[in-house]
Amino acid sequence: MKLYYFPGASSLSVHIALAETGLEYTLERVDFVSHRTEDGRDFYTVNPLGCVPALELPTGEILTEGAAIVQYLADLVPEKHLAPPNGTLARYRLQAWLNFLASEIHQSLGPFFSAEVPDKSKTLLLQRLAQRFGILEQELGRHDYLLREFTVADGYLFTLLGWCDYLKIDLSPYPVLQAFQARIALRPAVQRALQEEGLL
Fold this sequence. Notes:
Elements: E1 2-5, H1 11-21, E2 26-31, E3 36-37, E4 54-56, E5 62-64, H2 66-76, H3 89-109, H4 119-140, H5 152-167, H6 175-185, H7 188-196
Parallel strand pairs: 1-2
Antiparallel strand pairs: 1-4, 2-3, 4-5
Helix pairs in contact: 1-2, 1-5, 1-7, 3-4, 3-5, 4-6, 5-6
């Protein structure tokens, strides 16, 4: 399998999941400015949206959208327990967390990467994020992981919290989230993914 990625982007969540599976994979970096891959291809021919992550399967097919990719990877190695079994309530809870992270955290953080977004909008987004972080703080105050044991949702949350560091969004009001971030960072698979992306 080949992961198309950009260092520290949402593709890091998939990279972490890949490392956790123990399966073999390769990486191909995408340039966000030129939208070219490392081997010079037009990335729009890989993913028409032009964004990472994109996972090339052994069949040559391309799977996009992080929440879908990480569940696909987890299902390849059910013995690793990276996602609860399909059809269980726990699996739907995983999907609920992945959706929450994508729609409430990821989408709220995205505008901070653009200098064109007005400060007033960013202030409103910070208020929204504070409420959402409060929910996560409360949930993770009860147990170490979103579903009580590590799953692909935790890798996604770790990735998004890393964005907060990069964007200078203060997480000090959320000591539980900070402890979670530090705990996940120590996982060998997370260390591997960070090292492979040049983020250590």
